[in-house]
Model the fold of this input.
Amino acid sequence: MKLHDCQMAPNPRRARIFLAEKGLDVEMVEHSILGGETCAAEYLKINPWGTVPALELDDGTLIREAPAIFRFVEAMHPEPNLLGNNPKEAAEIEAWERFSEFNGIGAIGEYFRNQTEGLAGRGLPGPTKLDLIPALVERGAARAGYFYQQLNEQLGKTEYVGSNRYSIADITAHCCVDFANAVSLGIPEDCPSVARWYKAVSGRASAGA
Amino acid sequence: MKLHDCQMAPNPRRARIFLAEKGLDVEMVEHSILGGETCAAEYLKINPWGTVPALELDDGTLIREAPAIFRFVEAMHPEPNLLGNNPKEAAEIEAWERFSEFNGIGAIGEYFRNQTEGLAGRGLPGPTKLDLIPALVERGAARAGYFYQQLNEQLGKTEYVGSNRYSIADITAHCCVDFANAVSLGIPEDCPSVARWYKAVSGRASAGA
Done:
């Protein structure tokens, strides 16, 4: 199988880290978002939604959307468990994974995207032509503040984001914070629990993926 | 268990339909979004994220985020299967369920929310104060057009949204189209496959939930 990827983007990176945590060595196929490749005809033939990551199986099946990839890979390769060992734990992990996606990556994405000239006409991922909206830069920064505050409160109570052990919730939140760092929205000084956790997840071998 | 709900909103409705399809009779606790109740101190004590649906178990555990609720309930009550019978089917259903959430409910939500005076200062669900952004009304309508077009193409190939049988992907897409209808973004005339499918899902007993 191979992963349709974009090295610089946080969303496919969470799939790369997930695969690394599973110990799987998967071929990566690079499609530059900033270079317009994910919206070009060639990639739209593979995935009409124009999104990465997408996992292509050896039989040609294409699995789109990062959480669908996580669940499929976890079903095929259950260890180490990253999605939850029982229904209640899985629910709490999924809730925080989604929180980190929407309120973390989503917020920082709108902050970054709407001030990036190279993405003119591409207000959201995918092939639809959408103007950038400058007001979303400010909104994204405000939302990032809320994300950090909620994450800090949670990490004052649990060692990792979705439970007391490392899970997919940590992977998504980690990719989010590294994305935020890259666009100067790094961890606020009043979030020491986030800083403590960030040091731990950044030290894992998978962080280089 | 009980479901923290808002009758008029598409997101909790998908949990209500899911529970109805499972044949479960669950107590509903109403929190009006337009009335500000989901962001009021009383509800934030239950769910600091200020979102509905949230499923409260008899032991006090709170399950947040609709897909986490779906997965928890499916684990407890496997029949009828609504999330997929095998990893590949589950992945395709999850991809379309998410597509319908982000590009459907998300699009129509930004179209509706950003022109609704009663939601001033509440640009997104949750307690963060965020200005409405008029440019998102137009963007939401454009995105809804893309959602319908992609859905129509898919439903020209499969009987239901995520596969050839009814699943959670249909529930989310159905709640999206009913929400769109309510805000005058109904099914475009050039989407006959969506109209065919919509008639089928609307005729199910669970549609009244």
